[in-house]
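Every protein is a chain of amino acids, and every chain bends into a shape of its own. Below is the pair of lines this work produces for a single protein:
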Amino acid sequence: MGGGNGQKSKMARERNLEKTKAAKGSQLEANKKAMSIQCKVCMQTFICTTSEVKCKEHAEAKHPKADLYTCFPHLKN
């Protein structure tokens, strides 16, 4: 008869393997490079798209005695 589900599965695996090989670089590496915001008190890093609200939440939760601008001086601008 020919073909069968085993052959279809093998072909699908091969196609998917080729698709994953096509992606260049690692997403983890890109994420590490994007961690450009840093708390100056504890040196924890945050991704570059972190909002001021998230920075404020971090400062209030982790450093209640320090103000927001001590933790994140880039927000003064």
About this structure: Helices lie at 4-22, 27-33, 52-62, 68-71. The mean pLDDT is 86.
